[in-house]
Each structure stands twice: as structure tokens, then as C-alpha cells.
Specification:
This protein is mainly α and 210 residues long. It has helices at residues 2-11, 20-24, 33-50, 57-66, 71-74, 91-95, 103-125, 130-145, 149-173, 179-188, 192-205.
Length: 210
């Protein structure tokens, strides 16, 4: 029981860890990683219930709840981390574009992120009871590698959660939302239900994007 308590105390740190992407684009007092996890878990649960092809909703919610626990030690890694120029004046133009790379580079970048995050998660759960530890790791692997329909669905919901948050920040700050949010989302989502959700976002927020 002591190790479970220590684990719960450790993940509380996520409440105070702001998401890196929002800091980079200049959002004041951005959401924390824990707030993002909460939002994604609710979205995943509600949207999974609407899907015609049955999903294991309990599994979807669990995946959403644990998918970013690794960031306690790994940090919140963004697609822009390794390509940001030193001159911050160049950042807005860069953020307006979705990062492109060769297939070889994509694999290299993914593996680097994957290894860092897996190491972080394994450190976090190392002293938990074996059954809980195994379940958390398997759920995380499902999210990262898309091993089941639940993992693939939740991963896509994660992208939608970030897009929705970007739109809400855009409305609050009255600034145009970077096109990359739309490009990156549309390229990663193929679930028909979630494609319909994107259309609702477009209708709701009337974004100016190409």
C-alpha cells in the first residue's frame, strides 16, 4: 500500500506541469498536463459511446487516463522541440506549418521519444504491484503503438482534445489559430465519427485556415 500511495503522490505533480506547446506559442497560465488528461478522458468516454462499431469504453477511458503519466519525468515533448530556431521572431511562421520529415527521420524521432517516455513510465510504476504495473504499461503501449482499436481511437481523440484546446485559446485571446493544428489533426484522424467531430469544430469556431 505504501508504494501505491507514493505513486499517487508522484502523479500529483502533473497538476503543476504546464503543457509545453502552449508555453511555446505564448499562452499565459496554460492548462497543466493533468488538466489535459482529464479533458481527454471525458472526450474519449463520450465519443466512444457514440461510435457505432463497439469499443471497450472502460479500456478507452483507462488509456486516456494513463497516456501522459510518462511526462512526469520525460516532460511534454512537442514536434517542434528539435527544429525551433534561436530567433523567436521566426517561431510564428514555423508554428503555422506542420513539421515535415523523411520517413527515416520520422522513425528516428518517434523512437527517441518512445524510448525516453517508456523509460520514464517504467520508473514511475516500477514499485507498483505487478498486475497494476503490467496493466498501465500495456495500456500505454496500446496508445503509443496502436495495438488495438481502443488504442488507435484514443490516440486520435488525443489529437482532437489538443485541437479543441487550441481553438478555445484562440477564441479567448482573439488570435488566429495556427494552421498546423488543423493540418496535423486531419492527417492523423481517419475514424469516421471523429472526422464528423472535426466538421463540428469547423462549424462552431469558423476558423480561417486553408
Amino acid at each position: 500500500m505504501e508504494e501505491i500511495l507514493n505513486f499517487l503522490i508522484e502523479i500529483e505533480k502533473l497538476k503543476k506541469m504546464p503543457r509545453t506547446g502552449w508555453i511555446l506559442i505564448g499562452i499565459k497560465n496554460p492548462e497543466s498536463i493533468a488538466e489535459h488528461i482529464f479533458h481527454e478522458a471525458i472526450m474519449a468516454w463520450v465519443l466512444a459511446r457514440q461510435r457505432k462499431n463497439n469499443l471497450n469504453v472502460d479500456k478507452v477511458v483507462k488509456i486516456a487516463l494513463i497516456h501522459d503519466l510518462c511526462e512526469i519525468y520525460a516532460g511534454d515533448i512537442t514536434p517542434y522541440d528539435e527544429i525551433l530556431p534561436k530567433n523567436k521572431k521566426e517561431w510564428p511562421e514555423l508554428f503555422d506549418k506542420w513539421p515535415r520529415a523523411s520517413e527515416k527521420k520520422k522513425i528516428k524521432t518517434f523512437l527517441k521519444k518512445y524510448k525516453k517516455e517508456r523509460k520514464s513510465l517504467e520508473k514511475l510504476i516500477s514499485k507498483l504491484p505487478s498486475e497494476i504495473k503490467k496493466e498501465i504499461l500495456n495500456l500505454w503501449l496500446d496508445y503509443e503503438l496502436g495495438l488495438t482499436k481502443e488504442g488507435r481511437f484514443t490516440k486520435q481523440v488525443g489529437r482532437l482534445t489538443t485541437l479543441l484546446q487550441a481553438l478555445l485559446y484562440g477564441k479567448k485571446t482573439k488570435q488566429r489559430v495556427y494552421r498546423s493544428w488543423w493540418i496535423g489533426t486531419k492527417e492523423r484522424i481517419d475514424d469516421p465519427l471523429l472526422i464528423d467531430f472535426i466538421k463540428q469544430l469547423e462549424k462552431k469556431f469558423h476558423p480561417k485556415h486553408k
